[in-house]
Amino acid sequence: MSSGEEAPPVILADRREQASSPAILSILGRAVEITELEFGDYAFFGVDHHSKPIQIGIEYKKVRSLTGDIESGRANWQLAGMLHAYDRSWVIINRQGVRVGTEGLLEYMAGRSRDGKVVWKSSGFMYHSLCAWDTARQEMGVLVKWVESDREVARTILSLYDSYQTPMPAPLVKPPDPFMFGEATMLERVALALSGTREHPLLGPKRAIAAAKHFGSIAEMVNASVSEWRGIEGFGSVVSKGVVAEIHKRWDKRAL
Protein backbone atom coordinates (compact mmCIF):
# COMPACT_ATOMS: atom_id res chain seq x y z
CA MET A 1 0.00 0.00 0.00
CA SER A 2 1.43 3.41 -0.93
CA SER A 3 1.91 6.09 1.73
CA GLY A 4 -0.98 8.14 0.35
CA GLU A 5 -3.42 5.25 0.15
CA GLU A 6 -6.00 4.99 2.91
CA ALA A 7 -5.86 1.77 4.94
CA PRO A 8 -8.91 -0.47 4.55
CA PRO A 9 -11.17 -1.02 7.56
CA VAL A 10 -10.35 -3.99 9.77
CA ILE A 11 -13.41 -6.17 10.34
CA LEU A 12 -12.78 -9.47 12.08
CA ALA A 13 -14.70 -12.40 10.57
CA ASP A 14 -15.06 -15.80 12.20
CA ARG A 15 -13.26 -18.57 10.34
CA ARG A 16 -16.53 -20.50 9.84
CA GLU A 17 -17.78 -17.72 7.55
CA GLN A 18 -15.33 -18.92 4.87
CA ALA A 19 -17.55 -21.97 4.36
CA SER A 20 -20.98 -20.57 5.22
CA SER A 21 -20.85 -17.06 3.70
CA PRO A 22 -18.12 -16.87 1.02
CA ALA A 23 -20.11 -14.36 -1.08
CA ILE A 24 -20.23 -11.87 1.80
CA LEU A 25 -16.51 -12.22 2.47
CA SER A 26 -15.81 -11.71 -1.23
CA ILE A 27 -17.76 -8.44 -1.24
CA LEU A 28 -16.05 -7.21 1.94
CA GLY A 29 -12.66 -8.00 0.36
CA ARG A 30 -9.63 -6.39 1.99
CA ALA A 31 -11.76 -5.09 4.87
CA VAL A 32 -11.84 -8.56 6.45
CA GLU A 33 -9.35 -10.32 8.68
CA ILE A 34 -10.15 -14.00 9.29
CA THR A 35 -9.85 -15.15 12.89
CA GLU A 36 -11.70 -17.19 15.53
CA LEU A 37 -14.47 -15.43 17.42
CA GLU A 38 -15.98 -17.00 20.52
CA PHE A 39 -19.29 -15.26 19.85
CA GLY A 40 -20.66 -13.60 16.73
CA ASP A 41 -19.65 -13.83 13.08
CA TYR A 42 -18.09 -10.37 12.68
CA ALA A 43 -16.52 -7.87 15.10
CA PHE A 44 -14.65 -4.57 15.04
CA PHE A 45 -13.60 -1.69 17.28
CA GLY A 46 -15.19 1.74 17.30
CA VAL A 47 -16.08 4.61 19.65
CA ASP A 48 -19.24 5.69 21.47
CA HIS A 49 -20.57 9.26 21.70
CA HIS A 50 -18.05 9.98 24.49
CA SER A 51 -15.19 8.87 22.18
CA LYS A 52 -14.69 5.87 24.47
CA PRO A 53 -13.36 2.77 22.63
CA ILE A 54 -15.97 0.03 22.31
CA GLN A 55 -16.17 -3.35 20.60
CA ILE A 56 -19.07 -4.18 18.28
CA GLY A 57 -20.19 -7.74 17.53
CA ILE A 58 -22.42 -8.91 14.68
CA GLU A 59 -24.27 -12.20 14.40
CA TYR A 60 -25.43 -13.03 10.86
CA LYS A 61 -28.44 -15.29 10.34
CA LYS A 62 -30.51 -16.44 7.41
CA VAL A 63 -34.16 -16.77 8.39
CA ARG A 64 -34.18 -20.51 7.83
CA SER A 65 -31.26 -21.17 10.18
CA LEU A 66 -32.55 -18.59 12.66
CA THR A 67 -35.93 -20.28 13.12
CA GLY A 68 -34.19 -23.61 13.75
CA ASP A 69 -31.85 -21.99 16.28
CA ILE A 70 -34.80 -20.32 18.04
CA GLU A 71 -36.57 -23.67 18.40
CA SER A 72 -33.43 -25.41 19.69
CA GLY A 73 -32.50 -22.57 22.06
CA ARG A 74 -29.16 -22.05 20.31
CA ALA A 75 -30.05 -18.49 19.22
CA ASN A 76 -30.65 -17.35 22.81
CA TRP A 77 -27.39 -18.96 23.92
CA GLN A 78 -25.48 -17.19 21.15
CA LEU A 79 -26.96 -13.76 21.89
CA ALA A 80 -26.39 -14.13 25.63
CA GLY A 81 -22.73 -14.62 24.81
CA MET A 82 -22.80 -11.61 22.46
CA LEU A 83 -24.20 -9.32 25.17
CA HIS A 84 -21.54 -10.53 27.57
CA ALA A 85 -18.63 -10.22 25.10
CA TYR A 86 -19.38 -6.95 23.26
CA ASP A 87 -20.33 -3.36 24.11
CA ARG A 88 -22.80 -3.28 21.18
CA SER A 89 -24.45 -6.38 19.75
CA TRP A 90 -26.12 -6.57 16.34
CA VAL A 91 -28.01 -9.29 14.51
CA ILE A 92 -28.30 -9.05 10.72
CA ILE A 93 -31.14 -11.25 9.41
CA ASN A 94 -31.29 -12.15 5.72
CA ARG A 95 -34.87 -12.86 4.61
CA GLN A 96 -33.99 -13.59 0.98
CA GLY A 97 -36.00 -16.52 -0.40
CA VAL A 98 -38.59 -16.37 2.41
CA ARG A 99 -42.23 -15.30 2.39
CA VAL A 100 -45.25 -15.40 4.69
CA GLY A 101 -47.85 -17.97 3.63
CA THR A 102 -51.63 -17.64 3.82
CA GLU A 103 -51.82 -19.24 7.29
CA GLY A 104 -49.13 -16.95 8.72
CA LEU A 105 -46.45 -19.64 8.38
CA LEU A 106 -43.04 -18.82 6.96
CA GLU A 107 -42.36 -20.46 3.59
CA TYR A 108 -38.97 -21.07 2.01
CA MET A 109 -38.09 -21.06 -1.66
CA ALA A 110 -37.43 -24.75 -2.40
CA GLY A 111 -36.59 -24.42 -6.11
CA ARG A 112 -38.44 -24.09 -9.37
CA SER A 113 -40.85 -26.30 -11.23
CA ARG A 114 -40.28 -27.42 -14.83
CA ASP A 115 -42.27 -24.47 -16.11
CA GLY A 116 -40.06 -22.06 -14.14
CA LYS A 117 -42.44 -21.25 -11.30
CA VAL A 118 -41.04 -20.85 -7.77
CA VAL A 119 -41.84 -23.77 -5.46
CA TRP A 120 -42.46 -22.75 -1.84
CA LYS A 121 -42.23 -25.09 1.15
CA SER A 122 -43.83 -24.41 4.54
CA SER A 123 -41.46 -24.18 7.49
CA GLY A 124 -43.99 -24.85 10.23
CA PHE A 125 -42.74 -21.67 11.98
CA MET A 126 -45.18 -18.80 12.51
CA TYR A 127 -44.20 -15.35 11.27
CA HIS A 128 -45.58 -13.69 14.41
CA SER A 129 -43.31 -15.93 16.53
CA LEU A 130 -40.29 -14.59 14.64
CA CYS A 131 -41.52 -11.01 15.17
CA ALA A 132 -41.98 -11.68 18.89
CA TRP A 133 -38.44 -13.07 19.12
CA ASP A 134 -37.12 -9.98 17.30
CA THR A 135 -38.92 -7.63 19.72
CA ALA A 136 -37.69 -9.54 22.79
CA ARG A 137 -34.08 -9.41 21.57
CA GLN A 138 -34.26 -5.66 21.04
CA GLU A 139 -35.67 -5.20 24.53
CA MET A 140 -32.62 -7.10 25.80
CA GLY A 141 -30.31 -4.60 24.09
CA VAL A 142 -29.59 -6.48 20.85
CA LEU A 143 -29.89 -4.31 17.72
CA VAL A 144 -31.56 -6.02 14.74
CA LYS A 145 -31.27 -5.23 11.03
CA TRP A 146 -33.28 -7.06 8.32
CA VAL A 147 -31.80 -7.32 4.81
CA GLU A 148 -32.69 -8.92 1.46
CA SER A 149 -29.40 -10.21 0.00
CA ASP A 150 -25.76 -11.12 0.66
CA ARG A 151 -24.71 -7.83 -0.93
CA GLU A 152 -26.92 -5.91 1.48
CA VAL A 153 -25.42 -7.88 4.39
CA ALA A 154 -21.93 -6.76 3.34
CA ARG A 155 -23.06 -3.15 2.83
CA THR A 156 -24.68 -3.15 6.28
CA ILE A 157 -21.50 -4.45 7.95
CA LEU A 158 -19.40 -1.76 6.24
CA SER A 159 -21.98 0.92 7.08
CA LEU A 160 -21.98 -0.10 10.76
CA TYR A 161 -18.18 -0.04 10.76
CA ASP A 162 -18.15 3.49 9.31
CA SER A 163 -20.81 4.76 11.72
CA TYR A 164 -18.85 3.62 14.79
CA GLN A 165 -15.53 5.19 13.73
CA THR A 166 -16.57 8.71 14.81
CA PRO A 167 -18.43 9.69 18.00
CA MET A 168 -22.17 9.46 17.55
CA PRO A 169 -24.29 12.39 18.79
CA ALA A 170 -25.52 11.93 22.35
CA PRO A 171 -29.31 11.50 22.73
CA LEU A 172 -31.06 14.87 22.82
CA VAL A 173 -33.99 13.64 24.91
CA LYS A 174 -33.63 11.54 28.04
CA PRO A 175 -35.53 8.24 27.60
CA PRO A 176 -38.77 8.34 29.62
CA ASP A 177 -38.68 4.69 30.71
CA PRO A 178 -35.77 4.03 33.10
CA PHE A 179 -36.21 0.26 32.91
CA MET A 180 -35.33 0.19 29.21
CA PHE A 181 -32.06 2.08 29.59
CA GLY A 182 -29.08 2.62 31.91
CA GLU A 183 -28.65 0.38 34.92
CA ALA A 184 -31.77 -1.68 34.20
CA THR A 185 -30.48 -2.60 30.75
CA MET A 186 -27.15 -3.64 32.27
CA LEU A 187 -29.04 -5.77 34.79
CA GLU A 188 -30.80 -7.53 31.91
CA ARG A 189 -27.48 -8.12 30.17
CA VAL A 190 -25.91 -9.60 33.29
CA ALA A 191 -28.98 -11.77 33.87
CA LEU A 192 -29.01 -13.01 30.28
CA ALA A 193 -25.26 -13.66 30.44
CA LEU A 194 -26.04 -16.15 33.21
CA SER A 195 -27.55 -18.52 30.67
CA GLY A 196 -24.89 -21.14 31.32
CA THR A 197 -23.88 -23.21 28.31
CA ARG A 198 -25.74 -24.55 25.31
CA GLU A 199 -25.82 -28.01 26.89
CA HIS A 200 -26.76 -26.75 30.38
CA PRO A 201 -28.83 -23.57 30.04
CA LEU A 202 -29.87 -21.75 33.20
CA LEU A 203 -31.84 -18.67 32.19
CA GLY A 204 -34.00 -17.82 29.21
CA PRO A 205 -35.27 -14.35 28.26
CA LYS A 206 -38.32 -14.50 30.57
CA ARG A 207 -36.27 -15.35 33.65
CA ALA A 208 -33.60 -12.80 32.68
CA ILE A 209 -36.17 -9.98 32.60
CA ALA A 210 -37.77 -11.20 35.86
CA ALA A 211 -34.36 -11.18 37.56
CA ALA A 212 -33.51 -7.73 36.22
CA LYS A 213 -36.81 -6.35 37.55
CA HIS A 214 -36.38 -8.04 40.94
CA PHE A 215 -32.91 -6.76 41.83
CA GLY A 216 -32.08 -3.11 42.38
CA SER A 217 -28.51 -3.21 41.12
CA ILE A 218 -25.92 -5.50 39.55
CA ALA A 219 -24.11 -5.77 42.92
CA GLU A 220 -27.35 -6.87 44.59
CA MET A 221 -27.93 -9.50 41.91
CA VAL A 222 -24.39 -10.87 42.02
CA ASN A 223 -24.33 -11.06 45.82
CA ALA A 224 -27.80 -12.63 46.18
CA SER A 225 -28.12 -15.98 47.96
CA VAL A 226 -29.84 -19.09 46.65
CA SER A 227 -32.90 -18.33 48.80
CA GLU A 228 -33.12 -14.79 47.37
CA TRP A 229 -33.06 -16.16 43.82
CA ARG A 230 -35.76 -18.67 44.77
CA GLY A 231 -37.96 -15.73 45.77
CA ILE A 232 -38.28 -14.72 42.09
CA GLU A 233 -41.26 -16.16 40.24
CA GLY A 234 -40.20 -19.00 37.95
CA PHE A 235 -36.96 -19.76 39.82
CA GLY A 236 -36.87 -23.17 41.47
CA SER A 237 -34.17 -24.69 43.65
CA VAL A 238 -32.15 -26.22 40.78
CA VAL A 239 -32.09 -23.03 38.67
CA SER A 240 -31.28 -20.82 41.69
CA LYS A 241 -28.37 -23.00 42.79
CA GLY A 242 -27.08 -23.12 39.22
CA VAL A 243 -27.20 -19.32 38.84
CA VAL A 244 -25.35 -18.72 42.11
CA ALA A 245 -22.70 -21.28 41.10
CA GLU A 246 -22.32 -19.58 37.71
CA ILE A 247 -21.92 -16.18 39.39
CA HIS A 248 -19.12 -17.52 41.61
CA LYS A 249 -17.32 -18.77 38.48
CA ARG A 250 -17.73 -15.59 36.41
CA TRP A 251 -17.47 -12.59 38.75
CA ASP A 252 -15.20 -11.36 41.50
CA LYS A 253 -17.85 -10.01 43.86
CA ARG A 254 -15.30 -7.88 45.71
CA ALA A 255 -15.09 -5.64 42.63
CA LEU A 256 -18.78 -4.73 42.81
Summary tags:
11 helices, 6-stranded mixed sheet, alpha/beta, about 260 residues, globular, 9 strands, DNA polymerase, domain 1, Rossmann fold, 3-stranded antiparallel sheet, single chain
Just name the CATH architecture of the largest domain: 3-Layer(aba) Sandwich
**Strand ordering within the main sheet:** 2-1-3-4-5-9
Number of structurally distinct domains: 2
Oligomer: single chain
Strand count: 9
How big is the Rg? 21 Å
- Main β sheet profile: 6 strands, mixed
Strand and helix order: EHHEEEHHEEEEHEHHHHHH
Count of helical regions: 11
- pLDDT averaged over residues: 79
The CATH topology of the largest domain: Rossmann fold
Describe what you observe in this structure.
The protein has 256 residues and is of the alpha/beta class. The chain folds into 2 domains: 11-98 and 126-163, Rossmann fold (3-Layer(aba) Sandwich); 178-255, DNA polymerase, domain 1 (Orthogonal Bundle), CATH 1.10.150. The chain is built from 11 helices and 9 strands.
Helix-strand blueprint:
Blueprint: E1 11-14, H1 17-20, H2 22-28, E2 32-35, E3 42-47, E4 53-62, H3 63-72, H4 74-85, E5 88-94, E6 98-100, E7 105-112, E8 118-126, H5 127-139, E9 142-147, H6 150-163, H7 182-193, H8 205-214, H9 218-222, H10 226-230, H11 237-250
Parallel strand pairs: 1-2, 4-5, 5-9
Antiparallel strand pairs: 1-3, 3-4, 6-7, 7-8
Helix pairs in contact: 2-6, 4-7, 7-8
Structure described in brief:
This protein has 256 residues and is an alpha/beta fold.
